[in-house]
Amino acid sequence: MQIIWIEVEVQISEYKVRTYRGLADEQKVEELLNGNDRGFLQLNECYWYNDADDQADDERTLGSYQQLGTKEYSNFTGSMCMRCSTIINVSFLKGGFSNEPIIRGV
Known about the structure:
The chain has one helix spanning 26-33, and strands spanning 3-11, 17-25, 40-50, 64-67, 80-83, 87-92.
């Protein structure tokens, strides 16, 4: 089993898409891309970017990265399972959270 970094765009409501990033089993990703829906796709070390609009209460003009298993999400293990039927797009990444640019609110 080979583990790879991916980005997954997921339909989270009728009008909203959220992009999650994490580690996934390459074989399961390939099966999903070939149309073999396995029900759910698991991402480990999962994180995502919240747009500034999602954080209107803290008056930031830029968004920020959120990561399962840290800060307000410290009770989570870091893994998330996404229903394959909600996945819109899959992109392959070079690395994970430590490779992301630092985004600071103004």
